[in-house]
Amino acid sequence: MTQPLLELHDVSVSFDGFYALTDLSLTLNKGELKSIIGPNGAGKTTFLDVITGKVRPTKGTVTFRGKSLVGLSEQRISREGIGRKFQTPRVFENLTVLRNLELAVSPHKSAFNLLIDKLPTSAKDEVQRLMHYVGLAPFATTRAGSLSHGQKQWLAIATLVAQAPEVLLLDEPVAGLTDEETVRTAELIKSLAGDHTVVVIEHDMEFIRDLNAPVTVLHQGQLLTEGPLEQVKADPRVIEVYLGQSDD
Ligand code: ADP
Ligand code: MG
């Protein structure tokens, strides 16, 4: 078998003795789309924090293309090809959609106004491609702050893709979105898999069903089960964990 692209082995994270993750082992293969679900506090965001270098594991290994990521800075891990969209999309609210994307494709993030004017044609083409890809071309000159929740999420995803990461980690991409925006977001994410390896963290079960990807369930920092959604949903342990939750 080929080596997994990204691998967590026996990872634990303790915050002053409280274990946000306990002995978590999980692999991601190249081009794969994987959904991660679990109730609030399950450790989903911490799982991303460990991969992206925001939090250092107390124990265990995290490897990307066979090399350890533990101890590397967030910037370095991002440069290695792991991109992340935070729960709250980080876009420059005061800049237009176009400027946000120009900045994202620009290799020099400082003094960008000056540098953007010198963006090579290939980068400008990429900005146009991304803007059409996420359906924001009609909003090129709109300030990001005036976009709907869904449009902001799509802009955040587009700025992430602009940096050409091999792995995309998406934390709650449909929180606060309308049903229609949620369906469009699922289509968008599915179209990114293959070219990218994608991890999606979500609560929304309808959305998880639309993604049609293998599901991993986290609970109290541990991997509860993995498998197709229907199998996972029928698992009595999963049902118990979700009892009393209004998500589904
Ligand atoms: P989820 O994203 O699944 O809702 P989190 O990964 O955000 O869960 O959190 C898992 C648990 O770890 C929660 O109980 C949370 O309060 C705790 N936690 C997360 N980050 C920290 C931190 N920096 N310090 C202390 N506790 C934390
Ligand atoms: Mg979270």
Structural overview:
With 248 residues, the chain is α/β, with parallel strands linked by helices. Helices cover 36% and strands 24% of the residues. A hairpin with a 2-residue loop joins strand 9 and strand 10 (222-227). The mean pLDDT is 92. The protein binds adenosine-5'-diphosphate and magnesium ion.
- How are helices and strands ordered from N to C? EEEHEEHEHHHHEHEHEEHH
Shape: globular
Give the class from helix and strand content and strand pairing. Answer: alpha/beta
Strand content: 15-25%
Compute the number of strand runs: 10
Could you give the topology of this structure?
Blueprint: E1 6-15, E2 18-28, E3 33-37, H1 44-51, E4 59-64, E5 67-68, H2 74-80, E6 82-85, H3 97-105, H4 112-116, H5 121-133, H6 149-162, E7 167-171, H7 179-192, E8 197-201, H8 205-211, E9 215-219, E10 222-227, H9 229-234, H10 236-242
Parallel strand pairs: 3-8, 3-9, 6-7, 7-8
Antiparallel strand pairs: 1-2, 1-4, 4-5, 9-10
Helix pairs in contact: 3-5, 3-6, 5-6, 7-8
The structure holds adenosine-5'-diphosphate and magnesium ion (MG).
